[in-house]
Amino acid sequence: MFTSVVVDDEESVINDLKGLLEMTCPHVKVVGTAKRSQEAIELIRAIRPQILFLDIQIDERTGLELLKSLEPMQMQVIFVTAHNDYAVEAFKLSAVDYLLKPVDPDELSEAVNRATTNIGKDLVHKQLTTLVHNLMPGANTRKIVLSDMDGLHILDIPDILWCHANGSYTEFKMKDGTELVVSKHLKTYERLLVDQGFERVHRSYLINIYNIKRIDRSRGEILMKNDETLPISIAADVLKEILSKLRQ
Predict the structure, then answer these.
(1) In whole angstroms, what is the distance from residue 224 CA to residue 180 CA?
(2) Torsion (CA) 171, 140, 241, 228 in degrees, nearest 10
(3) pLDDT by residue (tens digit) across 192-219?
(4) Spatial distance between the Cα atoms of 72 and 223, rounded to a whole number of angstroms
(5) I need a labelling partner for 228 at 20 to 30 A (CA). Which of 42, 151, 159, 214 fits?
(6) pTM of the model as a whole
(7) 149 Rama class: left (phi>0) / alpha (psi -120 to 50) / beta
(8) Among 191, 184, 181, 146, which Cα is nearest to 172's?
């Protein structure tokens, strides 16, 4: 049995989440709830739950500000938010779990499974630090959290040259020559990075267009800034769109 605490300023959300957990995740027990930030801080310090369900906005504080008030704990945090916008993109890039209100039972179950798998691992601090960065207004450089066999890696998105599909894995190539292999499909990162200057120029390649050195249309190739040549198989109008972005 895993212990959890639910923090939300809406009683109805707390009750709904407790009911869904009982129905879909009977191995997770809610041992405390709070509707105010100071009450939540005292409760979490006293109980030290393994999983924390946390509203992104609690009275005058954000959920992130609340977490800063706590000493480091090895608890898994799942945010609950009503905002399906820019903030959600930041959660995805930071590999921080979140649930949109009203909470979907299947999404809750998936988030809980990830959380219980990671209990005892010191991952949360890196993820939350990246989330804080990505949520900063006007942040010039977005970051992404990747996980491989060696642990978590926090990358500056502009430093990624390309992502390559290798079966159910994705290979990342960085400007400094570093390579990372992540056990997720390229489609996952296409969805995450399409708004960060990346284009799917080939079924196997997702590239950072700002790291293109030259496009050779006659050969169907792209020369990247590290002098690697990659194949291109997109339509001419899409290629024109890429070129126009590069000129902006």
Answers:
(1) 18
(2) -40
(3) 898 888 999 899 999 999 999 888 878 8
(4) 45
(5) 151
(6) 0.71
(7) alpha
(8) 181
